[in-house]
Specification:
225 residues; mainly alpha; 2 domains; 0% strand; disordered N terminus
Length: 225
């Protein structure tokens, strides 16, 4: 391709489009590259019809449409990609985390006081298990939903808010269980338990980060002039 079509008007248009888009870096880069290649191909075709490089690029950009009209469609696609990333993380990661803790509770080195644990302990433990199950299911539903609707921003907002509302509650409940377990058992000296705790914290941080990006990509693209 002639390098004349890789500068000036086309580059300015792609740069303006890039400023309006939010989403996963790789997907965003691929979309912009695809748009740029399409514009350059169209400009080259117009040049072959006799237009100057500048006129050819201007015509290609005009045909492509104003950034304010094109950006929402691009953003919708990027939002869908971010939803899939977050939903997959919840759908696959949450059950693994729940199974890890279930296994640890089965082999937990309980101390003498564990048999006299508070009545609320088992209730809270089951509540945490159910919340994790529901979170994993929510991820599966979001995966299914985003493949069948063009309203990926709505799915992104619901998924992002769900995670940001659920995790603080999970943190409080899990902390209550851990603190009580430390008193009743030798958990503080149990290396697998400590490793599982740090893995859980890392996974929760990852979920919060991904959910935050869901909310960020769901923001309406500002209209240009």
């Amino acid at each position: 391709m002639d390098t004349a079509f890789e500068t000036a008007t086309v580059d300015d248009y792609v740069a303006a489009l890039a400023k309006t888009l939010r989403g996963p870096r790789r997907a965003r880069r691929d979309l912009l590259a695809e748009a740029r290649d399409g514009l350059c191909d169209a400009a080259e075709a117009y040049a072959e019809e006799g237009l100057s490089p500048e006129e050819a690029q201007a015509r290609a950009v005009a045909d492509f449409g104003p950034v304010a009209e094109v950006a929402p469609g691009f953003q919708e696609e990027l939002t869908a990609v971010q939803v899939r990333h977050t939903a997959l993380l919840l759908f696959l990661g949450t059950p693994v985390l729940a199974l890890m803790w279930t296994f640890l509770w089965q082999i937990f080195p309980a101390g003498p006081g564990y048999a006299s644990r508070p009545d609320w302990f088992d209730v809270v433990a089951k509540t945490v298990d159910v919340m994790q199950l529901l979170t994993g299911l929510a991820g599966g539903v979001a995966l299914w939903r985003v493949r069948r609707t063009r309203r990926s921003r709505r799915v992104a907002k619901v998924l992002g808010l769900l995670v940001w509302c659920q995790l603080p509650l999970m943190a409080v409940l899990s902390s209550a269980l851990t603190e009580t377990a430390n008193v009743l058992t030798a958990f503080e000296d149990y290396v697998p338990g400590m490793v599982a705790t740090w893995l859980s914290l890392s996974f929760w941080s990852w979920k919060l980060w991904s959910a935050a990006h869901c909310l960020r990509t769901a923001v309406t693209v500002p209209k240009g002039r």
